[in-house]
Amino acid sequence: MSTPKTRCCWRKDLSEFRNLTDRERTGFLLVLEWFENFRLRNELEANRAAAKVFWKTEVIREDRPRESWQLEQWGDAIQWYLKWLDACAEAGVDHRSLAERVRAAVRSACARRGLSPRTKQCYGAWAARYAIFAKDEREVMHVLGHPVLLTIDD
Fold first, then answer.
1. Would residue 82 count as lying in a domain?
2. Considering the domain boundaries, does residue 79 fall inside one?
3. What angle do CA 35, 36, 40 make, to 5 degrees?
4. Which residues fall within 8 angstroms of residue 92, CB to CB, at 6 or more apart?
5. Domain match, 106 and 146 both
6. Pick from 110, 94, 116, 114: which is nearest to 45 by CA?
7. Containing structural domain, residue 123
8. Residuewise pLDDT in 10s, the chain (154 residues)
């Protein structure tokens, strides 16, 4: 399976989405960043199942009561994100961030070399953190020394 050449970024699409006020956009950004960090930290795929796990473990917590307007806005944000994922799939574009793609490529390369699961996890996490720092595909490929690194699909 080859990786699509076109890529989408939910942050950019959210900033250009016209059906939201600035206040709603700010609230959506907050919860979607929270969700993305949770998802990446737990190495979950971007899908409805990950959103359900996030909602149950992070949003609906007995030790942190939430206001009804928060739950409503956060639910709307997650729904927007899931619709955005569906639109990306329909258009055949890659929704994964640079860090996510680098992590998958490194883990795939480690698996081909027969490295242990923990080593794959550590190397993938290191490379993903570097990708977040570098913010540029060419810089990541240069430092990691593998020109096809970002084209490898898990």
1. yes
2. yes
3. 120
4. 4, 6
5. yes
6. 94
7. 98-151
8. 454 456 777 888 888 888 888 888 999 999 999 998 898 888 888 899 999 999 999 999 888 888 999 999 999 999 999 999 998 889 888 888 888 888 888 888 888 889 898 998 888 888 888 887 877 777 777 766 655 444 444 4
Element (H, E) at 98: helix 98-112
Structural domains in the chain (count): 2
Q: State the first-to-last Cα distance of the chain, in angstroms, to the nearest integer.
A: 9
The model's pTM is 0.74
Last residue of a domain, one of 60, 91, 122: 91
Tokens of 61: 């917590």
15 & 87 share domain: yes
Measured CA to CA, the distance from residue 118 to residue 125 in angstroms comes to 10
In a domain, 59, yes or no: yes
